[in-house]
Design goal:
about 350 residues, alpha/beta, UDP-n-acetylglucosamine1-carboxyvinyl-transferase, Chain, Dihydrodipicolinate Reductase, domain 2, four-stranded mixed beta sheet, 9 helices, 16 strands
Length: about 350
Amino acid sequence: MIEIDGSAGGGQLLRSAIALSAITDTPIRIEDVRGARENPGLKIQHATAVRAAAAVADATIDGADPGDRTVEFDPGQITGGHHSVEIGTAGSLTLLFETILPMASVAEAPIRLRAAGGTDVAWSPPFAYLRRVKLPLLRRFGFGAAVDLKRRGFYPKGGGAATLSIFPSEIEPIGLAGAAATADVRGARVYAIAEESLADAEVAERMAATATDALSENGHDVGERVIEYTSTKNPGAVITIRGDLPATVPGPNGDVSGIRPAVGASALGEPGTPSEEVASEAVDRFDRFVDSFGAVDRYLADQLVVPLAIAGGEVAIPTVTDHVTSSIELLEPFGLTVSREDRADGGTILRSPGMEIT
């Protein structure tokens, strides 16, 4: 059994460790979970992620209740099936799905996980980012995964519901080092969503219009603009911008024609914050990435460490965050590696030989 110090990491370390345990069939014991946080131990959303992974991986677990600071996870076989969990708060569904998603690399049959919680909440990727940016990119390299939204849930009441489906996959090495010239973003897509009580104030339209105007002024052709109102338990709004990079990187079998890396930026509406400010925040984040080095944005960079370690290949990233560093360090006990090349002109390239999947 591998012992992992969870004191310096947060929820991401827990989720990644559980995923790696299931994929490599390695029992783990995580001590002092979130020990350095103001409220250490598992929160409800973390405990739900452990239970969901245990169901999918037929694992034996100990310490999967809110407040627990030690978690043991002894995986079984990932055989497929339908599962359902409920966070019970506005805890992030997109982060919950992050725990299960890498299991597509070893799944023997389709897996469907239906979950209830928050779809668009702070400190986590909005649902549109997962659906429109991350999953299309991973599918290009063989990760079979899709998400279906039943209803949205904003903080503080949550109430959202969605299903993650993953399928047996033939993973190809990730080739995302050749598209590092991010200034060559070819176009942008805007997704503006708000709760239906905000329709009279035209919140979604105002977010979309502000983002479209700013992106156009910066030379980006907005090829798609989605405006949506939806029924949720409490008011909320979110905007996500997806940018497309040129298809210049090698994909499966060396083909470059079908690989179009995507980058994204998002912002959540807050009470009292004008829609225009929310949209401008998302555009500012988008432009900061465009002016940097990398084939993916800084948030997707740390989310790709585990898939890269599984599939092998290389990824150009704009910066090495603490999350990237901790994710790389976590790999070693599982026999996986990701190395980094820090470039003199800024940015970093991550490389991995991948793992042997039987």
